[in-house]
């Protein structure tokens, strides 16, 4: 059984930084991607970053490009999201996701999801 557990969310002021972590258990796929998505109240879930399991490629949504960095430590089965220069519009629930074969920003691609961690950015 695959479980994804996010941590690291919290409240920060605009311009600040946070680092989210996602610990995966029971996930042994060597293909596909790990990803981060977010969902603000009243809005659809938005994929913001993904990384290939071999770390050969990472891609970002325009809304976070240049500010957020996705990385992973396969020895720990953990994926990270470093978030810098945070803005109030980054306020959302952030989710970790794992896909076994496909990669991309679409939520439909991913087979497994964590429970989410809240990020709140104040002006």
Can you describe what's shown?
This protein has 123 residues and is mainly β. Strands 2, 4, 5, 6, 9, 10 and 11 form a 7-stranded mixed β-sheet that branches. Helices cover 0% and strands 50% of the residues. The protein has strands at 3-7, 10-13, 18-25, 33-39, 46-52, 58-60, 68-73, 78-83, 92-98, 112-113, 117-122. The protein is globular. A hairpin with a 4-residue loop joins β7 (68-73) and β8 (78-83).
Number of helices: 0
Structural class: mainly beta
Mean pLDDT: 94
According to DSSP, the number of beta strands is 11
Biggest pleated-sheet summary: 7 strands, mixed
Task: Please state the oligomeric state of the protein chains shown.
Answer: single chain
Distance between the termini: 40 Å
Q: Overall 3D geometry?
A: globular
Strand content bin: over 45%
What is the radius of gyration?
13 Å
Q: Which regions are unreliable across 5 or more consecutive residues at pLDDT < 50?
A: none
Series of secondary-structure elements, N-terminal to C-terminal: EEEEEEEEEEE
**Helicity level, as a percent range?**
under 10%
List keywords for this structure.
123 residues, mainly beta, 7-stranded mixed β-sheet, 4-stranded antiparallel β-sheet
């Amino acid at each position: 059984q695959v479980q994804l557990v996010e941590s690291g969310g919290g409240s920060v002021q605009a311009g600040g930084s946070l680092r989210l972590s996602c610990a995966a258990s029971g996930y042994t796929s060597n293909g596909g991607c790990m990803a981060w998505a977010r969902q603000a109240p009243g809005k659809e879930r938005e994929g913001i970053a993904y990384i290939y399991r071999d770390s050969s490629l990472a891609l970002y949504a325009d809304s976070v490009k240049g500010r957020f960095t996705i990385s992973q430590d396969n020895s720990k089965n953990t994926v990270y999201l470093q978030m810098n220069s945070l803005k109030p519009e980054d306020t959302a629930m952030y989710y970790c996701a794992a896909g076994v074969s496909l990669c991309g920003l679409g939520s439909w691609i991913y087979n497994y999801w964590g429970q989410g961690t809240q990020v709140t950015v104040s002006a």
